[in-house]
Write a structure and sequence with these properties.
alpha/beta; Rossmann fold; 7-stranded mixed sheet; two-stranded antiparallel ribbon; 29% helix
Amino acid sequence: MNDNLSPEQSTDAERKMQFLYALRSKGVTDKRVLAAMESIDRGPFVRGLFAERAYEDMPLPIACGQTISQPSVVALMTQALQVSPRDKVLEVGTGSGYQAAILSKLARRVYTVDRHRRLVREAREIFDTLDLNNITALTGDGSFGLPEQAPFDRIIVTAAAEDPPGPLLAQLKMGGIMVVPVGQSDTVQSLIKVHKTEDGLEYSELRPVRFVPLLEGLGKDG
């Protein structure tokens, strides 16, 4: 370890190394995704009682009864999305804003929608603080996507649907990829990758996950 580093810097460096090691051990191998995960500090996205656990690979509660996904799941979903620098990405379920921030390092433009106005407002504040200028965060019913901005090269859904939502599939560009958790809210769900081709939709099952359910309409604060 560099002797010129302060104890605080040494701790941060160690924590970052452990963080990246944990991601690699879970199967995250894409160098661009690892670089994005390294460049976005999860700390600002976790507030209150759980702030001190921001660097653990675990989901944590956030406002409005939602959760921030564990970093390894964020990284694996991002890796499956195969985002290129020219892509326009739609995220359904802004939550803390952490996933959108990661995507902003990989895509040309990120649109993120959440049914909770408070979450969108707080995420925007973090995006501004981090100078992430290629994210547009909106309050709305994400299950219907964003028709006015469609089609999208990539779509990521961070809440579980019983089936990949039809309106989102319709807004996915030909050749595009959607990653979505599918299953009942009270059981273990499957993370599904959908590839839209000229011959139809190709589905790949990636791994079991557990997400909050995808709900229609706005939240009570919306």
